[in-house]
């Protein structure tokens, strides 16, 4: 199975900050990388698919980049509703998720 | 509006069985792969199983092979997960998710809609 890692595991940030989360795959997954946002007690929500495509209805402050093994999720200006846990997931083979990055208020 | 509504969770003893259901609406259910994804309390996400549009292909994570069975009834727009020989480590919220593939800037496959989840607790 392809292993996914994320860094950092958690971060504290302020409203308006630029936030970057990194995801790494144990082997090349081309662009088969998705990003999800999850708030406590809620289902995950798709933000980015195919590494850099913004899901319909997701604010443009979210962006994704990367290919191969290294990927990033960037939030250009953090908003109050963005405090959540973010997961990357590869779909190149049997789906696996990263361990998550919790973004909380500084 | 796409809706996925899970049901069937609850408390079950180790070694017991449970059948989860997911009712789909707002899209042509028979056109999509479907998946089950679970999340143990306070932990991350783990894909469990998926099933092809016509039910002819099914795949499972190694930890549930031989114990769980995914199925679907396209006439009822419903997805199921039969869980047997349950273990404490199967305790989790179980989500059904629509499993979609296509081409954008490149080929992709993703879970674009999720249900609200149903909690399965395996404990004596």
What is the overall silhouette of chain B?
Answer: globular
The average pLDDT score of chain B comes to: 97
Q: Report the structural category of chain A.
A: mainly beta
Strands of chain B, count = 11
First-last Cα distance of chain B:
40 Å
Number of helices in the DSSP assignment of chain A: 0
Question: What's the gyration radius of chain A in Å?
Answer: 13 Å
SS-based structural class of chain B? mainly beta
What percent strand of chain B? over 45%
Largest sheet of chain B: 7 strands, mixed
Share of helical residues of chain A:
under 10%
Q: How helix-rich are the residues of chain B, as a percent range? A: under 10%
Looking at the structure, what is the overall shape of chain A? globular
**Radius of gyration of chain B, in angstroms, nearest whole number:** 14 Å
Separation of the first and last Cα atoms of chain A? 36 Å
The low-confidence runs of chain A, each spanning 5 or more residues with pLDDT under 50, are none
What is the averaged pLDDT score of chain A? Answer: 97
Low-confidence stretches of chain B: none
Strand count, sense and closure of the main sheet of chain A? 7 strands, mixed
Would you give an account of this structure?
The complex is a heterodimer of chains A (106) and B (124). With 106 residues, chain A is mainly β. Chain A has no helices and 11 strands. Chain B is mostly beta strands and 124 residues long. Chain B is 0% helix and 56% strand. Chain B has strands at residues 3-7, 10-12, 18-25, 33-39, 45-51, 58-60, 68-73, 78-83, 92-103, 107-114, 118-122. In chain B, the strands form 2 sheets. In chain B, strands 2, 4, 5, 6, 9, 10 and 11 form a 7-stranded mixed sheet that branches. Chain B has a 4-stranded antiparallel sheet with strand order 1-3-8-7, with no helix packed on it. In chain B, β7 and β8 form a beta hairpin. The model of chain B has no long low-confidence stretch (mean pLDDT 97). Classes of the chains: A mainly beta (106), B mainly beta (124).
